[in-house]
Every structure is written in structure tokens, then in C-alpha cells.
Amino acid sequence: MSDFRDIEAALHDTQELVLDLMPDAIRAVLQTSMSSSFGAVHNWRRVVIPQVIGFAERDDSGRARCPLCHVRPQQGFHDGFTLPGGLTRHLDGSHNFYRCGVMTVAEAVAKRAR
Questions:
Q1: CA-wise closest residue to 98 among 110, 109, 86
Q2: Which of 6, 44, 45, 49 is the most exposed place for a label (fewest CB within 10 A)?
Q3: Widest CA span of the chain, in angstroms?
Q4: CB 35 within 8 A of CB 43
Q5: 44-50 long-range CB contacts below 8 Å, 24 or more apart?
Q6: Which residues lie across from 47 on neighbouring strands?
Q7: Does residue 49 come out as left (phi exceeding 0), alpha (psi in the -120 to 50 range) or beta?
Q8: What is the CA radius of gyration of the chain?
Q9: Under a CB-based contact definition with an 8 Å cutoff, are residues 105 and 90 in contact?
């Protein structure tokens, strides 16, 4: 059982490190607490995602890479996500979009902090 706890502690430390690598303003948004009520995850995403999109840097075409993980869409020839729809889907993992790994970590930390 000790091995499991060690692995779990290492995972939690790694998740915290990922958030620590974010710029202060972004980290503050991602560390928004999550309530323990029904629908807490949905409400947390509803609050956090628009704020994260606010950090996106638009290119000349009006698209932007993810401000958290810096990836671009996996399909197509574009260098960024449409705003706000495409980036929202990436951060949310909806509509068959690849979910942002940093967002996944931030959500896990917020759930654990409840």
C-alpha cells in the first residue's frame, strides 16, 4: 500500500509542478477553487475557460495557439485554433478535440482541493 501512496504523492507533486510552470496570471486563474456541489466541474470550466482564452495571442488570421500547452490544431493547415470556439473545444476536450493536458491537470488539482 505504501507504493501506491508514494506514486499518488509523486503524481500530485508533478501536477502542482505543471501549474507552477505557468505564468503567475494564468496560474491564478487555473487555481480557482472548485465547489463540492453537483455540477462543480461544469461550473469550474464555465468560469476558467473564458479567462484562459483571454490570454491567447491572436495571429494575423485571428487564430491562436493554446496559451497553456502552446499546441495548434491537429487537423488542417492552420497554426492556431479559431477563437473562441476552437480553443474552447480544445480546453474542454469536447467535439472530438484533443484536450489540453495542462487544463486536465488544473482540473484534477481543483477537484482534489475541494
A1: 86
A2: 6
A3: 54
A4: yes
A5: 44/107, 44/110, 45/91, 45/92, 45/107, 48/106, 49/88, 49/91, 49/92, 50/84
A6: none
A7: alpha
A8: 15
A9: no
Question: What contacts 36, CB < 8 A, 6 or more positions away?
Answer: 114
Q: What HEC string does the chain produce? A: CHHHHHHHHHHHHHHHHHHHCCCHHHHHHHCCCCCCCCCHHHHHHHHHHHHHHCCCCCCCCCCECCCCCCCCCCCCCCCCECCCHHHHHHHHCCCCCCCCHHHHHHHHHHHHHC
Please give the pLDDT value at position 69: 96
Residue type, 58: R
Grid coordinates in use for 49? 475557460
Q: For all residues of the chain together, what is the average pLDDT?
A: 90
In the chain, the N- to C-terminal Cα span, in Å, equals 24
Is residue 108 within 8 A of residue 15, CB to CB? The reply is: yes
For 33-83, the pLDDT digits (tens) are 887 777 898 999 999 999 999 999 999 999 999 999 998 887 767 789 999
